[in-house]
Amino acid sequence: MTDLLYSEAESDLRAAVRSLLTGRADPAELAGRIERDTPYDPALWQALAADMGAAGLLVPEKLGGQGATHREAAVVLEELGRAVTPVPYLTSSVVATGTLLALDTSRAAVDLLGELATGSRTAVLAVPFSAGPGYEPATTGTVTGVADAARADVLLVVRPDGLYAVDAADASIVPQTPLDLTRPLAAVTAADAGTRLADADAARAAVHRGLLAGAGLLASEQLGVAEWCLEETVRHTRQRHQFNRPIGSFQALKHRMAQLWLQVVHARAAARNAADALATGSGDAPLAVAVAQVYCSRVAVHAAEECVQLHGGIGMTWEHPAHLYLKRAKADQAALGAAGRHKEALAELVDLPGPRTGS
User: Fold this and answer.
1) Which residues does residue 147 pair with via DSSP β-bridges, in sequence order?
2) What one-character DSSP code corresponds to residue 335?
Protein backbone atom coordinates (compact mmCIF):
# COMPACT_ATOMS: atom_id res chain seq x y z
CA MET A 1 0.00 0.00 0.00
CA THR A 2 1.09 3.57 -0.66
CA ASP A 3 2.66 5.17 2.39
CA LEU A 4 2.25 8.97 2.37
CA LEU A 5 3.78 9.47 5.82
CA TYR A 6 7.39 10.49 6.42
CA SER A 7 9.63 7.88 8.00
CA GLU A 8 11.95 8.70 10.88
CA ALA A 9 14.93 8.61 8.51
CA GLU A 10 13.17 11.01 6.13
CA SER A 11 12.36 13.38 8.99
CA ASP A 12 15.99 13.30 10.12
CA LEU A 13 17.11 14.04 6.57
CA ARG A 14 14.70 16.98 6.40
CA ALA A 15 16.07 18.38 9.65
CA ALA A 16 19.65 18.11 8.42
CA VAL A 17 18.93 19.79 5.07
CA ARG A 18 16.85 22.53 6.68
CA SER A 19 19.59 23.22 9.19
CA LEU A 20 22.14 23.55 6.39
CA LEU A 21 19.94 25.86 4.33
CA THR A 22 18.88 27.99 7.29
CA GLY A 23 22.46 28.94 7.93
CA ARG A 24 23.64 29.31 4.34
CA ALA A 25 20.67 29.90 2.00
CA ASP A 26 18.49 32.61 3.47
CA PRO A 27 15.80 33.62 0.93
CA ALA A 28 15.89 37.18 2.28
CA GLU A 29 19.52 37.49 1.11
CA LEU A 30 19.03 35.69 -2.19
CA ALA A 31 17.66 38.70 -4.07
CA GLY A 32 20.83 40.62 -3.30
CA ARG A 33 23.00 37.78 -4.57
CA ILE A 34 20.95 37.62 -7.76
CA GLU A 35 21.41 41.35 -8.25
CA ARG A 36 25.17 40.81 -7.96
CA ASP A 37 24.82 37.90 -10.42
CA THR A 38 26.15 35.43 -7.85
CA PRO A 39 23.13 33.32 -6.77
CA TYR A 40 24.98 30.01 -7.04
CA ASP A 41 27.14 29.09 -4.05
CA PRO A 42 29.59 26.27 -4.92
CA ALA A 43 30.43 25.77 -1.24
CA LEU A 44 26.76 25.20 -0.41
CA TRP A 45 26.44 22.67 -3.22
CA GLN A 46 29.54 20.89 -1.94
CA ALA A 47 28.07 20.73 1.56
CA LEU A 48 24.72 19.43 0.33
CA ALA A 49 25.84 17.11 -2.44
CA ALA A 50 29.11 15.72 -1.14
CA ASP A 51 29.37 16.29 2.60
CA MET A 52 25.73 15.39 3.29
CA GLY A 53 25.59 12.83 0.46
CA ALA A 54 22.33 14.15 -0.99
CA ALA A 55 23.59 13.94 -4.58
CA GLY A 56 23.87 10.16 -4.32
CA LEU A 57 20.50 9.36 -2.77
CA LEU A 58 19.17 7.66 -5.92
CA VAL A 59 22.44 5.85 -6.69
CA PRO A 60 22.91 2.30 -5.33
CA GLU A 61 25.60 1.80 -2.71
CA LYS A 62 27.57 -0.53 -5.00
CA LEU A 63 27.96 2.41 -7.41
CA GLY A 64 29.12 4.82 -4.74
CA GLY A 65 25.76 6.29 -3.74
CA GLN A 66 23.54 6.23 -0.67
CA GLY A 67 21.19 3.52 -1.89
CA ALA A 68 18.09 5.49 -0.89
CA THR A 69 14.95 6.10 -2.95
CA HIS A 70 12.91 8.83 -4.59
CA ARG A 71 11.13 9.36 -1.27
CA GLU A 72 14.32 10.68 0.34
CA ALA A 73 15.20 12.75 -2.73
CA ALA A 74 11.70 14.24 -2.57
CA VAL A 75 12.35 15.40 1.00
CA VAL A 76 15.51 17.19 -0.14
CA LEU A 77 13.58 18.90 -2.94
CA GLU A 78 10.85 20.02 -0.54
CA GLU A 79 13.48 21.83 1.51
CA LEU A 80 15.20 23.26 -1.58
CA GLY A 81 11.81 24.53 -2.74
CA ARG A 82 11.16 26.15 0.65
CA ALA A 83 14.35 28.16 0.27
CA VAL A 84 14.28 28.54 -3.57
CA THR A 85 17.87 27.38 -3.33
CA PRO A 86 19.85 27.87 -6.57
CA VAL A 87 21.56 24.46 -6.78
CA PRO A 88 21.43 21.89 -9.65
CA TYR A 89 19.88 19.13 -7.55
CA LEU A 90 16.78 18.49 -9.67
CA THR A 91 18.65 18.61 -12.97
CA SER A 92 21.77 16.67 -11.97
CA SER A 93 20.89 14.44 -9.01
CA VAL A 94 17.42 13.50 -10.25
CA VAL A 95 16.94 13.91 -14.03
CA ALA A 96 20.50 13.20 -15.22
CA THR A 97 21.05 10.55 -12.55
CA GLY A 98 17.72 8.91 -13.34
CA THR A 99 18.63 8.80 -17.02
CA LEU A 100 21.98 7.17 -16.29
CA LEU A 101 20.42 4.63 -13.90
CA ALA A 102 18.40 3.32 -16.82
CA LEU A 103 21.68 2.47 -18.59
CA ASP A 104 22.87 -0.18 -16.15
CA THR A 105 24.81 -2.05 -18.83
CA SER A 106 27.01 0.92 -19.74
CA ARG A 107 30.42 1.03 -18.06
CA ALA A 108 30.82 4.70 -18.88
CA ALA A 109 27.41 5.45 -17.36
CA VAL A 110 28.36 3.58 -14.20
CA ASP A 111 31.58 5.57 -13.86
CA LEU A 112 29.76 8.86 -14.38
CA LEU A 113 27.10 7.87 -11.84
CA GLY A 114 29.80 7.37 -9.25
CA GLU A 115 31.13 10.87 -9.88
CA LEU A 116 27.65 12.42 -9.69
CA ALA A 117 26.92 10.53 -6.47
CA THR A 118 29.96 12.01 -4.74
CA GLY A 119 29.15 15.52 -5.91
CA SER A 120 32.52 15.84 -7.62
CA ARG A 121 30.79 16.46 -10.98
CA THR A 122 27.35 17.57 -12.14
CA ALA A 123 25.49 16.65 -15.30
CA VAL A 124 22.39 17.81 -17.14
CA LEU A 125 20.25 16.17 -19.77
CA ALA A 126 20.49 18.43 -22.83
CA VAL A 127 16.77 18.84 -23.46
CA PRO A 128 14.58 21.91 -22.90
CA PHE A 129 13.49 22.33 -19.27
CA SER A 130 9.92 22.31 -20.57
CA ALA A 131 10.32 18.71 -21.81
CA GLY A 132 8.27 16.15 -19.91
CA PRO A 133 7.86 12.36 -20.04
CA GLY A 134 7.16 11.28 -23.60
CA TYR A 135 9.30 14.04 -25.07
CA GLU A 136 11.08 13.07 -28.27
CA PRO A 137 14.43 14.87 -28.11
CA ALA A 138 15.85 16.55 -31.16
CA THR A 139 18.92 14.68 -32.37
CA THR A 140 20.67 17.54 -34.12
CA GLY A 141 21.32 21.24 -33.74
CA THR A 142 21.05 23.63 -30.84
CA VAL A 143 18.84 22.85 -27.84
CA THR A 144 17.42 25.91 -26.10
CA GLY A 145 16.16 26.32 -22.56
CA VAL A 146 18.47 23.74 -20.95
CA ALA A 147 18.34 24.28 -17.18
CA ASP A 148 21.60 24.49 -15.21
CA ALA A 149 23.73 23.82 -18.30
CA ALA A 150 26.06 26.68 -17.38
CA ARG A 151 26.86 24.95 -14.07
CA ALA A 152 27.27 21.44 -15.46
CA ASP A 153 30.48 19.53 -15.97
CA VAL A 154 28.89 16.97 -18.31
CA LEU A 155 26.07 17.18 -20.85
CA LEU A 156 23.97 14.12 -21.73
CA VAL A 157 23.32 14.67 -25.42
CA VAL A 158 20.90 12.73 -27.61
CA ARG A 159 22.13 12.02 -31.16
CA PRO A 160 20.65 9.90 -33.97
CA ASP A 161 22.70 6.88 -32.91
CA GLY A 162 22.19 7.17 -29.16
CA LEU A 163 23.06 9.01 -25.96
CA TYR A 164 26.47 10.61 -25.39
CA ALA A 165 28.28 12.13 -22.42
CA VAL A 166 29.97 15.33 -23.58
CA ASP A 167 32.26 17.48 -21.46
CA ALA A 168 30.77 20.93 -21.05
CA ALA A 169 34.08 22.39 -22.24
CA ASP A 170 33.48 20.77 -25.64
CA ALA A 171 30.08 22.43 -26.12
CA SER A 172 28.81 25.92 -26.82
CA ILE A 173 26.69 27.07 -23.87
CA VAL A 174 25.05 30.46 -24.37
CA PRO A 175 23.12 31.84 -21.35
CA GLN A 176 19.49 32.82 -21.85
CA THR A 177 17.33 35.09 -19.71
CA PRO A 178 15.06 32.97 -17.50
CA LEU A 179 11.96 34.00 -15.58
CA ASP A 180 13.34 32.23 -12.51
CA LEU A 181 16.74 33.80 -11.91
CA THR A 182 17.67 31.06 -9.42
CA ARG A 183 17.64 28.42 -12.18
CA PRO A 184 19.62 29.58 -15.23
CA LEU A 185 18.78 28.47 -18.75
CA ALA A 186 21.09 28.19 -21.74
CA ALA A 187 21.18 27.28 -25.41
CA VAL A 188 23.44 24.27 -25.90
CA THR A 189 25.25 23.19 -29.04
CA ALA A 190 27.31 20.08 -28.44
CA ALA A 191 30.32 19.23 -30.57
CA ASP A 192 30.68 15.86 -32.29
CA ALA A 193 32.60 14.52 -29.35
CA GLY A 194 31.97 12.62 -26.16
CA THR A 195 31.49 9.06 -24.94
CA ARG A 196 28.65 6.96 -26.31
CA LEU A 197 26.52 5.62 -23.45
CA ALA A 198 23.67 3.86 -25.25
CA ASP A 199 22.13 3.15 -28.62
CA ALA A 200 19.09 5.03 -29.90
CA ASP A 201 16.42 2.74 -28.43
CA ALA A 202 18.06 2.55 -25.02
CA ALA A 203 18.60 6.30 -25.06
CA ARG A 204 14.92 6.95 -25.72
CA ALA A 205 13.85 4.73 -22.82
CA ALA A 206 16.47 6.25 -20.50
CA VAL A 207 15.47 9.82 -21.30
CA HIS A 208 11.86 8.93 -20.57
CA ARG A 209 12.87 7.45 -17.19
CA GLY A 210 14.88 10.52 -16.28
CA LEU A 211 12.14 12.97 -17.24
CA LEU A 212 9.49 10.91 -15.43
CA ALA A 213 11.54 10.98 -12.23
CA GLY A 214 12.17 14.69 -12.66
CA ALA A 215 8.49 15.52 -13.19
CA GLY A 216 7.45 13.40 -10.23
CA LEU A 217 9.93 14.97 -7.82
CA LEU A 218 9.38 18.47 -9.17
CA ALA A 219 6.03 18.19 -7.41
CA SER A 220 7.91 18.02 -4.10
CA GLU A 221 9.82 21.19 -4.95
CA GLN A 222 6.49 22.86 -5.77
CA LEU A 223 5.13 21.63 -2.44
CA GLY A 224 8.06 23.25 -0.64
CA VAL A 225 7.40 26.54 -2.43
CA ALA A 226 3.72 26.43 -1.45
CA GLU A 227 4.49 25.56 2.18
CA TRP A 228 6.88 28.49 2.60
CA CYS A 229 4.43 30.91 0.99
CA LEU A 230 1.59 29.77 3.25
CA GLU A 231 3.70 29.95 6.42
CA GLU A 232 5.15 33.36 5.52
CA THR A 233 1.69 34.72 4.72
CA VAL A 234 0.26 33.50 8.03
CA ARG A 235 3.22 34.99 9.90
CA HIS A 236 2.84 38.35 8.18
CA THR A 237 -0.92 38.59 8.68
CA ARG A 238 -0.46 37.90 12.39
CA GLN A 239 2.01 40.75 12.75
CA ARG A 240 0.52 43.33 10.37
CA HIS A 241 -2.16 45.46 12.09
CA GLN A 242 -4.99 47.57 10.70
CA PHE A 243 -7.75 49.17 12.74
CA ASN A 244 -5.86 48.11 15.87
CA ARG A 245 -6.09 44.38 15.10
CA PRO A 246 -4.06 41.81 13.13
CA ILE A 247 -5.20 41.65 9.52
CA GLY A 248 -5.13 37.85 9.82
CA SER A 249 -8.14 38.10 12.13
CA PHE A 250 -10.33 39.46 9.32
CA GLN A 251 -12.74 36.76 8.23
CA ALA A 252 -12.14 37.23 4.50
CA LEU A 253 -8.41 36.64 4.92
CA LYS A 254 -9.01 33.72 7.28
CA HIS A 255 -11.08 32.03 4.56
CA ARG A 256 -8.39 32.59 1.93
CA MET A 257 -5.64 31.15 4.10
CA ALA A 258 -7.78 28.22 5.24
CA GLN A 259 -8.52 27.36 1.62
CA LEU A 260 -4.85 27.61 0.75
CA TRP A 261 -3.92 25.38 3.71
CA LEU A 262 -6.32 22.73 2.42
CA GLN A 263 -4.79 22.91 -1.05
CA VAL A 264 -1.29 22.54 0.38
CA VAL A 265 -2.37 19.44 2.33
CA HIS A 266 -3.77 17.93 -0.87
CA ALA A 267 -0.59 18.86 -2.74
CA ARG A 268 1.48 17.08 -0.10
CA ALA A 269 -0.55 13.91 -0.60
CA ALA A 270 -0.16 14.09 -4.39
CA ALA A 271 3.59 14.76 -4.21
CA ARG A 272 4.20 12.00 -1.68
CA ASN A 273 2.17 9.56 -3.77
CA ALA A 274 4.29 10.32 -6.83
CA ALA A 275 7.54 9.93 -4.88
CA ASP A 276 6.38 6.66 -3.36
CA ALA A 277 5.28 5.29 -6.75
CA LEU A 278 8.69 6.12 -8.24
CA ALA A 279 10.49 4.65 -5.22
CA THR A 280 8.64 1.34 -5.41
CA GLY A 281 8.75 1.08 -9.20
CA SER A 282 4.96 0.95 -9.29
CA GLY A 283 3.27 0.46 -12.62
CA ASP A 284 1.06 3.39 -11.66
CA ALA A 285 4.04 5.75 -11.45
CA PRO A 286 3.17 7.60 -14.71
CA LEU A 287 -0.38 8.11 -13.41
CA ALA A 288 0.84 9.33 -10.00
CA VAL A 289 3.34 11.69 -11.62
CA ALA A 290 0.72 13.18 -13.94
CA VAL A 291 -1.72 13.76 -11.08
CA ALA A 292 0.98 15.34 -8.91
CA GLN A 293 2.12 17.70 -11.65
CA VAL A 294 -1.37 18.79 -12.62
CA TYR A 295 -2.26 19.62 -9.03
CA CYS A 296 0.98 20.75 -7.39
CA SER A 297 1.95 23.19 -10.13
CA ARG A 298 -1.35 25.01 -9.72
CA VAL A 299 -1.15 25.09 -5.91
CA ALA A 300 2.41 26.46 -5.92
CA VAL A 301 1.41 29.35 -8.19
CA HIS A 302 -1.72 30.09 -6.16
CA ALA A 303 0.22 30.06 -2.88
CA ALA A 304 2.88 32.39 -4.29
CA GLU A 305 0.25 34.78 -5.68
CA GLU A 306 -1.53 34.88 -2.33
CA CYS A 307 1.79 35.52 -0.60
CA VAL A 308 2.52 38.52 -2.80
CA GLN A 309 -1.02 39.94 -2.57
CA LEU A 310 -1.53 39.50 1.18
CA HIS A 311 1.81 41.14 1.92
CA GLY A 312 0.44 44.26 0.28
CA GLY A 313 2.97 46.82 -0.94
CA ILE A 314 5.97 45.07 0.60
CA GLY A 315 5.15 41.92 -1.36
CA MET A 316 5.71 43.83 -4.60
CA THR A 317 9.22 44.96 -3.71
CA TRP A 318 12.50 43.42 -4.84
CA GLU A 319 13.77 43.30 -1.25
CA HIS A 320 11.11 40.86 -0.07
CA PRO A 321 11.69 37.28 -1.33
CA ALA A 322 8.02 36.72 -2.27
CA HIS A 323 8.75 37.52 -5.91
CA LEU A 324 11.40 34.79 -6.03
CA TYR A 325 8.81 32.21 -5.02
CA LEU A 326 6.28 33.47 -7.55
CA LYS A 327 8.87 33.31 -10.33
CA ARG A 328 9.99 29.81 -9.26
CA ALA A 329 6.36 28.64 -9.12
CA LYS A 330 5.52 30.07 -12.56
CA ALA A 331 8.70 28.65 -14.10
CA ASP A 332 8.07 25.24 -12.52
CA GLN A 333 4.53 25.28 -13.88
CA ALA A 334 5.96 25.07 -17.39
CA ALA A 335 8.81 22.73 -16.48
CA LEU A 336 9.12 19.01 -17.26
CA GLY A 337 5.79 18.96 -19.04
CA ALA A 338 3.19 21.70 -18.62
CA ALA A 339 -0.06 20.89 -16.79
CA GLY A 340 -1.93 20.59 -20.09
CA ARG A 341 0.45 17.89 -21.32
CA HIS A 342 0.12 16.00 -18.05
CA LYS A 343 -3.67 16.25 -18.28
CA GLU A 344 -3.52 14.71 -21.75
CA ALA A 345 -1.26 11.93 -20.45
CA LEU A 346 -3.60 11.39 -17.52
CA ALA A 347 -6.59 11.06 -19.84
CA GLU A 348 -4.77 8.44 -21.91
CA LEU A 349 -3.64 6.50 -18.84
CA VAL A 350 -7.18 6.20 -17.48
CA ASP A 351 -8.66 5.63 -20.95
CA LEU A 352 -10.68 8.82 -20.83
CA PRO A 353 -11.44 10.03 -24.35
CA GLY A 354 -10.87 13.68 -25.13
CA PRO A 355 -13.44 16.01 -26.67
CA ARG A 356 -14.52 15.13 -30.17
CA THR A 357 -13.58 17.40 -33.03
CA GLY A 358 -15.58 17.93 -36.18
CA SER A 359 -19.05 16.61 -36.88
Assistant:
1) 185
2) T
